Every structure is written in structure tokens, then in C-alpha cells.
UniProtKB/TrEMBL annotation:
Protein name (database record): Lysozyme g
GO molecular function: lysozyme activity
SUPFAM superfamilies: Lysozyme-like
The keyword Disulfide bond is assigned to this record: yes
Gene3D superfamilies for the chain: 1.10.530.10
One Gene Ontology cellular component annotation held by this UniProt entry: extracellular region
PANTHER family: LYSOZYME G FAMILY MEMBER, LYSOZYME G-RELATED
Biological process according to GO: defense response to bacterium; killing of cells of another organism
Catalytic activity reported: Hydrolysis of (1->4)-beta-linkages between N-acetylmuramic acid and N-acetyl-D-glucosamine residues in a peptidoglycan and between N-acetyl-D-glucosamine residues in chitodextrins
Family: Belongs to the glycosyl hydrolase 23 family.
Enzyme Commission identifier(s): 3.2.1.17
Protein's UniProt keywords contain Protease: no
Length: 217
């Protein structure tokens, strides 16, 4: 299938999903844990060196764990690949990102009971919260994916307005975090995931999305 709209031209397209896991983890370290100039002059005897190494290992382990879970979900995810791509193209959102959220929220539907999860509060592949939204369509339908993706888009736009000085990738990541815990929970870039489920939502979803991007999404 050929895309009518190149995904890199989409408003919500992002370079985050083009990077390898190692590049992403190291990029986070370089960009957000130390100053670029300091990183360039760090040596093994520098007092920050050990901390940087430990943080790098932790980041890489986290990414690999996310990728492993995404890999386990791949077979089930592929049942919805056509729908995910269709919705992503129409709404101009990376299909890999939609897949990353589906993996995180419902393991591609494999943990749901009659389409419901989260003790009966979350509906469908993308776990739309029935307390905040009226679920639309069957739990694994195009209508459901459209609703969930539109909720994500609204969160990204809210974060764009809330943090206009952030880069597009930072705003996107903030929107992903807000999809789980709400826009009010996003107070800063470095700590946006504090308060999300397991305090790792956006990092986990981005890592899973990277995996699905490399597998045809």
C-alpha cells in the first residue's frame, strides 16, 4: 500500500521513531542529563562519569525491555496493522505511535475481557477511559482507533499550547504522556512521566513505537 501523504510531512510525524534504540537512549542522555559541552570533555576520572554510565545503562535496559514486550505483542498487533495504517494515514499520525500505545495499553487486545480492561474502565485496543469519554464503535474497530487517536491528537495540541517553546518532538512526547495521565500532569519535560502508570509511559511508548516502525508500521 502506498501512502497518499508522506508521513514525514504530517504535522504529527516525528524523527523520534526513525532512531535506533541506542541512539534514542544516548540522545536522551546527551540532550537532557548533561550539557553538550560538558559531555564532550568528560573523562573517566570526571566525577560525573560513573553516574553518566549508570544512567546510560539504565536507559538502554529500559528501551530493550520495552522492545521485548513490543516483540511479544507483534503477532497480535499484525491483525490490526491495516486498520492502524489506515487511521494513521487519515489522521496524519505515525502508525508506529498508534501501535506503541496499543501495545502499552492492551498488548494488542490480548489482555482484554470482552474489549474491556483496567477493571472495566478502559475500552478497546487503545483503552479509552469511559469516565472521560463515551467509547465509540467495537473495541477493535476503525471507529475505536479513530477515537483513541483523536484523543491523542487533542493531548498533543494541548501540550503544544502549554509549552510553545518545546521542540515538536518534545511536545509529541508530552502529548503521549498526557494520553495516560492528562495534560495537567505534564509540568516539565524531564519529569513528564512522573504520575503516569509506572512513571514511564511516554518513554515506554516511544521505545515500542520505534520497534514497530522498524517492522513496517
Amino acid at each position: 500500500m502506498r501512502w497518499k501523504i508522506p508521513m514525514h510531512q504530517c504535522m504529527l510525524g516525528t524523527s523520534q521513531f526513525e532512531s535506533s534504540s541506542a541512539e534514542k537512549a544516548l540522545g536522551v542522555l546527551v540532550d537532557h542529563l548533561v550539557d553538550h559541552r560538558l559531555f564532550c570533555v568528560l573523562r573517566k576520572n570526571h566525577p560525573m562519569y560513573s553516574m553518566l554510565v549508570l544512567l546510560g545503562i539504565a536507559a538502554l535496559l529500559g528501551v530493550r525491555a520495552s522492545e521485548k514486550i513490543a516483540e511479544r505483542d507483534l503477532k497480535a498487533m499484525n491483525h490490526y496493522k491495516t486498520l492502524i495504517k489506515k487511521v494513521g494515514e487519515r489522521l496524519c499520525v505515525e502508525p508506529a505511535l498508534i501501535a506503541g500505545i496499543i501495545s502499552r495499553e492492551s498488548h494488542a487486545g490480548t489482555i482484554l475481557k470482552h474489549g474491556w480492561g483496567d477493571n472495566g474502565n478502559g475500552f478497546g485496543l487503545m483503552q479509552v477511559d469511559k469516565n472521560s469519554h463515551k467509547p465509540v464503535g467495537p473495541w477493535n474497530s476503525e471507529a475505536h482507533l479513530t477515537q483513541g487517536t483523536n484523543i491523542l491528537i487533542s493531548m498533543i495540541k494541548t501540550i503544544q499550547k502549554k509549552f510553545p517553546s518545546w521542540t515538536k518532538d518534545q511536545q509529541l512526547k508530552g502529548g503521549i504522556s498526557a494520553y495516560n495521565a492528562g495534560a495537567k500532569n505534564v509540568q516539565s519535560y524531564d519529569r513528564m512521566d512522573i504520575g503516569t502508570t509506572h512513571d514511564d509511559y511516554s518513554n515506554d511508548v516511544v521505545a515500542r513505537a520505534q520497534y514497530y516502525k522498524k517492522h513496517g508500521y
